[in-house]
Amino acid sequence: MQDRPFIREMIHKAIQALGGKATYADIKEYIHDRWPGVNDNTINAQVIVCTVNQPSRIHYPENQRAREYDERYDFLYTVGRGQVVLYSPDEHGKWGIRDDRSGKI
User: Fold this and answer.
1) Which of 5, 9, 58, 88 could bridge across to 105 with cysteines, CB 3.0–4.6 Å?
2) Which whole-number Å values give the CA distances from 10 to 6, 16, 103, in the listed order?
3) Any domain includes 2
4) What is the DSSP letter of 97?
């Protein structure tokens, strides 16, 4: 049996193969065609984790600490409901995860 990549790696492969722009549905279709049986909710959650301008990403373990850019997780940018593009710091600005003045993420 072939080893499956992490879901975030599947998503990264999908967005690259889809020309750098895709809907969540496009990403799920790409993944299901190559790695059958991956849970849609897991894909959705990992898209959120990997989207730098998604406010709810801080609720996932990968993003619960202040940090600068991490290429493993910070490669998507949302451009509309259910639509993402490859994140480009030059185009979209530099994003990270920071504590506010009260110490909250």
Assistant:
1) 58
2) 6, 10, 33
3) no
4) B
Q: Which domain holds residue 74?
A: 7-92
Four-CA torsion 102, 76, 69, 94, nearest 10 degrees: -80
pLDDT in tens, 41-79: 999 999 999 999 999 999 999 999 999 999 999 999 999
Q: Which of 100, 58, 31, 96 is nearest to 23 (CA)?
A: 31
Q: Are 46 and 78 a contacting pair, CB within 8 Å?
A: no
Query: How many domains are contained in the chain?
Result: 1
What CATH number is associated with residue 54? Answer: 1.10.10
Work out the end-to-end distance of the chain between its first and last CA atoms, rounded to an integer number of angstroms: 40
Which residue is it, tokens 């790409």? 30
- Take residue 19 and report the two structure tokens written for it: 């020309």
**Its pTM surpasses 0.85:** yes
Cβ atoms of 31 and 44 closer than 8 Å:
no
- Strand-pairing partners, residue 83, are 23, 80
Residue 104 domain flag: no
